[in-house]
Design goal:
- The chain is mainly α and 78 residues long.
- The protein is built from four helices and no strands.
- The chain has a domain of 39 residues.
- The radius of gyration is 13 Å and the shape is globular.
């Protein structure tokens, strides 16, 4: 992941999620992953600090998975 994308990530739970998710979803650009992870972090702001790294990563992973074209199992409508 380019360092410039990580430079905009200030929260450690988001930073660690972005690093791992970038390896898992290389077909998505780093900006997309950072945006999703930051959004998830904001939505989880009432959660305990110790749980945030795992919660942010799990929620972001789920959202990234459903954003991929093959998320429907390769089935096409119709």
């Amino acid at each position: 992941m380019p360092l410039t994308a990580l430079a905009t990530v200030h929260d450690p739970s988001v930073r660690s999620a972005v690093l791992r998710l970038s390896d898992e979803f290389p077909e998505l650009g780093p900006r997309s992953i950072v945006l999703v992870a930051n959004t998830c972090r904001e939505e989880l702001r009432g959660s305990p600090d110790g749980a945030l790294p795992e919660l942010v990563e799990r929620l972001a992973r789920q959202r990234l998975r459903v954003s991929l074209p093959e998320a429907d199992g390769g089935r096409c409508c119709g």
